[in-house]
Structures are given as structure tokens and as C-alpha cells.
Amino acid sequence: MKLYMIGLGKMGYRLAENMRDNGHQVVGYDVNEEVVAKFKEEKFEVIESIEELKNIQEKKVIWVMLPAGKITNSTLKKIKDFVASEGDIVIDGGNSDYQDSIKHAEEFEKKGISFLDVGTSGGTYGARNGASFMIGGNENAYKELEEFFKSISVENGTIYTGKSGSGHYLKVIHNAILHSMLEILGEGFDLLNASPFNYNLKDVAFNWKESAVIRGWLMDLAYDAFSKNQKLDDVETVIHSSSACIEAQKSAFELNIPVPMFNITLLMRQRTQQQETFSASVINSLRREIGGYRSKN
Question: A biological process (GO) annotation for this entry (predicted)?
Fold first, then answer.
């Protein structure tokens, strides 16, 4: 399948490599000329501007992988107004506001264009080697691309979630859960680090990841992080508020559902902006292993 990837950042670039490895043709675009040059060096086809797509007569599948919010919304508007034509499929694979996705879907549908809101999980590793996709939007468009999504996902990593907005809403809750789990792991290892016992945290993480009830991918990543640097002093200790937890809170208030852990996670994030903690070092080290954090210089 031929696909146009708009946005070649840390996720878009790796997704493009994943797609090519699985037999798909990817044409890329990014405003960063250095990234585009590197993309070309790796023998990918590129376009110099989004507007070039309006000259393509054949049916197009356009995947937008940009930072959520203003940049994504303005790009989708440009695609809707000037680039996409009837029968095309447009995908937003970022962490967009699900309410924005509902509006985009309605606007695209008026022009006969299918829109899919796709929550993408797995970080940069998943983008490159097989991600988890939560896909909302036009069901016919999903069915048309179902095998494509399965080809670039981890095994059993694709779920069609229903009407527009449902994919991005599911990703919001997924991320809120993730941030809460990171907080719990950070607090646990912080307590072990401060205890009167001389624990080797790498060995603890290895034991837990191999045999304990709390084993899982995050514990695997904890072991990887402690294996590289037991002190975890190569990461910042400031963690900014989670937009996912904020959005999950808003939805919870509207639905009258208590979500105390999401609330606590946000409060603890705010604490990191005032006080250095080993817990925050653990969290940022895990975020780095996932691929969503840059080490301090």
C-alpha cells in the first residue's frame, strides 16, 4: 500500500521504517529539512510541500503524525481544504483531543473523505517494531486498512473502537493509566532506595520482572534503566503535568466517575517542579526507555 506520512519526528519516522519493512510504500514530508534529507538518504520518496498532494489524482491515504493541538489541527484543516479529495482516507495518529477528532471527522465526511483517529501506543520502540493501535472513525475505512494496521502492529495490537473520537479517547485513558503506573513504580523504588537495607535495585527489578505478580513491560524497562545507571542521575527530576491525566479528570467529572489515582498522579507531577526526588528519576528513566523523554545534557 502507498501512504503519505506527514510528520517525520521520533514517531512518524520510525512508523515509516516499520511500514516499509512490511512491504508498504511511504512518501514522507516534514518541515525539518535535515530530517527530510536523512529520509531521502534512506531511499524514501519525499514531497517538498503538503500542497503537492493536491496534484495526485489517485486515491490517497494520508497519515498525520504531529504534536497534538494547534499544529495537528491546522495541518488537518489544510489537508481538508486543499489536498484531500473524495474517497481519500486521512489518519490522525497522534495524541489529539478526542473532541477535536469528532469535529474533524464531521468536516471530512462532508467532503466524502474518511477520517480515522488512531491512538498509538508503544513509544518509539513500538512505532519501529510493532505498535498498539486504537482506531476510531469510519468503519469502512478501517476495514479497508485493517490488514495494513495489523501488518505494522504487534500481534493482537489492533482494535477498532467504533465511532469517531473513540480511538483518541481510549488513548487518553491508556496514557492516564500509564502515568499512574509510572508514579507507583517511582514511589516503590524511591522507598527501597531510602530504606535501611542495601538493595541492588537492578537485581530487584530483575527478580520482579522475571517472577513477581507485578512483572510486565514497565518492570522490564526498570531493569534496563537500572542496568545502565543504578543512580539514575542522568535524567532531570522535573516532570510536567500529564495532559492525559487532565483530560481523563475532565471526562471523569462529566461522567461522575471517581479517579483518585489520576488526581494524585497530577499532584505528584506538580511536586517534582519544586522538589527533587528519586521517584521522579525513576519515572523519567522509564519514560526514556519507552522513548518519550530526552536525557539531560
Answer: D-gluconate metabolic process
In the listed set 164, 185, 217, which residue is the last one of a domain according to the structure?
164
Residue type, 272: T
pLDDT tens-digit series, residues 75-105:
999 999 999 999 999 999 999 999 999 999 9
Average pLDDT in the 213-222 region? 96
Identify the three-state secondary structure at position 113.
coil
296 within 8 A of 234, measured Cβ to Cβ: yes
First to last CA, the chain: 40
Write out pLDDT tens, residues 221-249: 999 999 999 999 999 999 988 788 899 99
DSSP of 5-56: EE--SHHHHHHHHHHHHTT-EEEEE-S-HHHHHHHHHTT-EE-S-GGGGGG-
C-alpha cell at 57: 489524482
pLDDT score at 241: 81
Q: Are residues 158 and 207 in the same domain?
A: no
β-bridge partners, 3: 26
User: Does residue 50 lie in a domain region?
Assistant: yes
